[in-house]
Write a structure and sequence with these properties.
The chain has a domain of 179 residues: q2cbj1_9rhob like domain (Jelly Rolls). 37% of the residues lie in helices and 17% in strands. It is built from 10 helices and 8 strands. The strands form 2 sheets. The chain has a 5-stranded antiparallel beta sheet. The longest helix has 16 residues. It is globular and about 55 Å long. The relative contact order is 0.24. Fe (ii) ion (FE2) binds next to loops.
């Protein structure tokens, strides 16, 4: 299969690939995620990707976890995920983690609009800002059907370029720190430094983004960035763009994620 999605991801921040998994792969991955039925962030949602954890699990005789991790690593290999990540970063990359989690039907967003590799709240004295080039390319594989306002991961196209510029500006001390994790704070930091971002990102980028995300001010529904996807669809995205996990209103949602980041030195 074609592994060069770099151009699309660099341009939009996201690419969607239908039928990425075969029905048999969907079935097997679903069995694995259902085995733990772990919510997002739960320790049981993570699989083994490094040798140290492998020996810890072995000592604890967590054989199922080792077996499942092996299967998911084999899937990564057969789907050439490393190659896709390397094409994107144009560098050697490493797999940081694999998780698989289960989100029950509910009426609130799985996670609201935000950008990753960001900061929220007051600056602490010891905070060390991240190198803007350290971020994850996330491979997000749906194991259940999702749709608008039903568990899809929504993304504002092109917003990763702004996210990158914010991280870089703070890291290089070109603007002062203020929180920007949530969409509200993200809009505020670019509005407060409007001239700087307009100059660095070129005309219209900031204005277009502020118009597209005006729903955050007005409290309107923001489903125009939603989409339908069948089980087996994969989205690959730059986590520096503004995104959310919409509420799974119609069915429980299961996903598997592979996260890659570049090796900078
Ligand atoms: Fe996120």
């Amino acid at each position: 299969m074609d592994t060069n999605f770099a151009k699309t991801i660099k341009e939009n921040g996201i690419v969607k690939i239908k039928n990425f998994l075969t029905p048999e792969e969907i079935r097997r991955c679903s069995e694995i995620v259902k085995f733990y039925k772990a919510p997002k962030g739960d320790k049981n949602s993570f699989f083994v990707t490094n040798i140290k954890v492998f020996f810890i699990k072995l000592l604890k005789l967590e054989i199922n976890k080792l077996k499942h991790s092996y299967e998911l690593l084999q899937l990564k290999k057969s789907k050439k995920l490393d190659e896709i990540a390397q094409n994107f970063f144009n560098k050697k990359t490493k797999l940081s983690f694999i998780d698989g989690y289960f989100s029950k039907i509910e009426k609130k967003d799985i996670i609201p609009w935000h950008t990753d590799q960001a900061y929220s709240g007051e600056k602490k004295v010891e905070v060390k800002f991240n190198n803007p080039d350290t971020f994850y390319l996330k491979f997000f594989i749906y194991l259940t059907k999702v749709s608008s306002n039903n568990g899809c991961m929504s993304y504002i196209p092109g917003s990763h370029k702004i996210g990158y510029q914010i991280r870089k500006a703070i890291y290089c001390n070109e603007i002062s720190y203020q929180p920007y994790w949530s969409l509200r704070d993200f809009r505020k930091i670019i509005t407060d430094n409007y001239i700087y971002f307009n100059n660095t990102l070129g005309p219209n980028t900031i204005e277009d983004f502020l118009v597209k995300t005006n729903f955050d001010e007005t409290g309107q529904e923001s489903s125009q960035f939603d989409y339908d996807a069948e089980a087996g669809t994969m989205v690959i995205f730059d986590e520096g763009g503004v995104h959310r996990g919409s509420k799974p209103t119609l069915n429980d949602r299961m996903v598997i994620r592979y996260l890659f980041d570049p090796i900078l030195h």
